[in-house]
Amino acid sequence: MRFDGASVLVTGGSRGIGKAIALRFADLGAARVAIGYLRNDSAAEAAAEELRAAGAEPVLVRGNVSSERVAREVVELGPLDALVHNAATGVIRPALEVEEKHWEWTLGANARALLTLARAAVPQMRAGSSIVGISSLGAQRVLENYVLVGTSKAALESLVRYLAVELAPRGIRVNAVSAGVVETEALEHFPNKEHMLREGHERTPAGRLVEPRDVADAVTWLCSPGAEMVRGHTLIVDGGYSLLA
């Protein structure tokens, strides 16, 4: 499985899972890897240095991933061989405590952004290219204080199915990867972080938590020719965690 000479965009690619995905593409031969990020310039520059060291040309795309300005920058990237929407945000609180602005922000960044990015990128994407959205178990299961993010991820998975059918005549595949609990900086926003980590360790049949590299491996496989007949699918990468009642 190689991506020699490929051009890739990974949103939320400066840290955590996104950076692991970006670096995996670089390790597999991608010539140019664009990473989207919101505002942490130092993290983005550090990720860019790692991409250079891996042999890829880094491109930094700064700003709100659901904005028209970022969409215009995506158009300027030219033909993409892989578009990975990993960027995610959201307010972690009970349903009755969320506000309208929280809904708009979370749904915009986590779900609508994928459609915005697809509209910008697809006209230049060649047959054989792939789009992958990163989801989470909260799209299908109820997690504490996760109503906004979970709902947005459910919308993302639905959008993936619709895009998979609409873009199939162009030869573009669309899928999603749903990860279990991954110990990254994102967990700092959860008040029950320690419980999540402890339960993840204790209940996962595979015997360990999911790591960013596990998600990166799944994403790159979905973007490879070996996944040609996988369309509109959400691939669960959780070590078997969600199998248990």
Question: Could you describe the 3D structure shown?
Answer:
With 245 residues, the chain is α/β, with parallel strands linked by helices. The model has no long low-confidence stretch (mean pLDDT 94). 40% of the residues lie in helices and 16% in strands. It has seven helices and seven strands; from the N terminus they run βαβαβαβαβαβααβ. The protein is globular and about 45 Å long. Strands 3-2-1-4-5-6-7 form a seven-stranded parallel sheet, with helices on both faces. α1 (16-27) packs across α7 (212-222), α3 (68-76) runs parallel beside α4 (100-121) and α4 packs parallel to α5 (147-167).
What descriptive keywords fit this protein?
245 residues, seven-stranded parallel beta sheet
Topology:
Blueprint: E1 7-11, H1 16-27, E2 32-37, H2 41-53, E3 57-62, H3 68-76, E4 82-85, H4 100-121, E5 130-136, H5 147-167, E6 173-179, H6 193-203, H7 212-222, E7 234-237
Parallel strand pairs: 1-2, 1-4, 2-3, 4-5, 5-6, 6-7
Helix pairs in contact: 1-7, 3-4, 4-5
